[in-house]
Design brief:
Elements: H1 6-10, E1 28-30, H2 33-39, E2 46-51, H3 57-69, E3 72-77, H4 97-106, E4 111-113, H5 117-120, H6 139-142, H7 146-161, E5 165-169, H8 173-185, E6 191-195, H9 215-233, H10 238-253, E7 260-269, E8 283-292, E9 295-304
Parallel strand pairs: 1-4, 2-3, 2-5, 3-4, 5-6
Antiparallel strand pairs: 7-8, 8-9
Helix pairs in contact: 7-8, 9-10
This protein binds pantoate.
């Protein structure tokens, strides 16, 4: 595959097979756990796709994968205040609910769960789910409390929706690993399915936050996928070679206009998210987080060493 096809080179698995959307099927919209409970008996084997809305092709791919494996698909749309830090973009996070409902109808979603903040958090959330040490590194270090917020809302969604399976993007690789661990450690009985990252043709991983990027910022941001590609191309050289190939791309991007300011670049064990030693063999993930202008972006590529 050529340099012009970063999606194919960065994704190790094929994306979920596309299914013809059940055009025009209007999903039932539930706003409360009680409304969900009334719908649940008719849904059979149920897949949940948890989202914060602003649905894009990455979410549509999750929904298509979910439809392949379940009788019914529920999509939750909830911008979760618990996972945003005080200086993050909670207020300006996009909330295009009508467009999201239309996207869900096009994708043949059966139920949309769109609760109000007061429904999810009727009072102080005193009891939360703590991710342990996996949640304190990388994203957890740069966004303190982020994974507590994610796990708490995901646990609540699981209790309210009662899915058999739940679908998460590999794009948020640490989130996926931490959710898997929560389900395992707390015996939640929901099968967690990871779906490969969807990329735009220029290589940028799809994200609701890409909408914040100006054209020039977007150009600079492409350094993230280029760095991952350089790392993946160096995988036969082992962890040291992988990291130095990726670092070289990011070092050049640090002097671009606008510059790419790296929060972290790391090669981690795919299950534990601890950094791998130089002689590591097994499944790893090369992860990167960086800021371009006001926008913070994350990306990763899974690698087998
Ligand atoms: O990945 C997301 O969109 C969110 O973190 C999630 C899983 C929906 C929880 O709010």
């Amino acid at each position: 595959m050529s340099e012009q096809d970063p999606q194919g080179r960065l994704n190790q698995q094929d994306p979920a097979p596309a299914r013809t959307p059940a055009a025009g099927r209007t999903p039932a919209v539930a706003r409360t756990p009680e409304e969900l409970a009334r719908l649940r008996p008719g849904l059979g084997r149920l897949a949940l796709v948890p989202t914060m809305g602003a649905l894009h092709i990455g979410h549509r791919t999750l929904i298509a994968a979910a439809r392949e494996q379940a009788d019914s698909v529920a999509v939750s749309i909830f911008v979760n205040p618990l996972q945003f830090g005080p200086n993050e973009d909670f207020d300006r996070y996009p909330r295009p609910l009508d467009a999201d409902l239309a996207a869900c109808a096009e994708e043949g979603v059966d139920v949309v769960y769109a609760p109000a903040v007061e429904t999810m958090y009727p009072g102080e959330q005193m009891v939360t789910v703590h991710p342990g040490r996996m949640g304190g590194v990388l994203e957890g270090e740069f966004r303190p409390g982020f994974f507590d917020g994610v796990l708490t809302v995901v646990a609540k969604l699981f209790h309210m929706v009662r899915p058999d399976l739940a679908f998460f993007g590999q794009k948020d690789a640490q989130q996926l690993a931490v959710v898997r661990r929560m389900v395992r450690d707390l015996g939640m009985g929901v099968a967690i399915v990871g779906v490969p990252t969807v990329r735009d043709p220029d290589g940028l991983a799809t994200s609701s936050r890409n909408a914040y990027l100006s054209p020039k910022e977007r150009e600079s941001a492409l350094a993230l996928s280029r760095a991952l590609l350089a790392g993946a191309d160096a995988s036969v050289t082992g962890p040291v070679g992988i990291l130095s190939a990726a670092r070289a791309v990011l070092a050049a991007a640090a002097t671009a206009a606008p510059p790419v300011s790296v929060d972290y670049l790391a090669l981690v064990d795919a299950q534990s998210f601890t950094e791998v030693p130089g002689d590591f063999r097994g499944d790893a993930v090369l992860v990167v987080a960086a800021r371009v202008g006001e926008t913070r972006l994350i990306d990763n590529v899974p690698l087998t060493l």
